[in-house]
Design a protein that fits this description.
This protein has 94 residues and is mainly beta. It has one helix at 56-61, and strands spanning 6-7, 14-16, 24-28, 36-42, 48-55, 63-66, 74-82, 85-93.
Length: 94
């Protein structure tokens, strides 16, 4: 996070299933303000292994994020960027 970046309201974001074994995540929230939301999946070394830009309206009704099937089992971080707000969520792939 940068000094001027605020946090996303974690209670307003649903991410499931977590842990996941089917290479997808459902993401839902009606609390985002920006037109376009950035979803980035990082490995624990900080490398972006998957990234998508999603329309806010898709997230309001629920968005299915397909994960690359070459990802190894383990822990990842899903970063959600909503304009000047950032949320980081722990994701487990097994």
């Amino acid at each position: 996070m940068t000094p001027n970046q605020s946090k996303i309201d974690y209670q307003s974001v649903r991410i499931y299933p977590n842990p996941t074994s089917n290479y997808y995540l459902n993401i839902q929230s009606d609390a985002f303000n920006s037109e376009e939301i950035v979803l980035q999946l990082h490995n624990l070394n900080g490398k972006v292994v998957h990234s998508e830009n999603v329309n806010n309206n898709q997230l309001k009704i629920g968005y299915r994020m397909e994960l690359p099937n070459q990802l190894n089992n383990g822990m990842y971080q899903l970063k959600i960027v909503d304009g000047g707000k950032l949320g980081i969520f722990k994701i487990i792939l097994r």
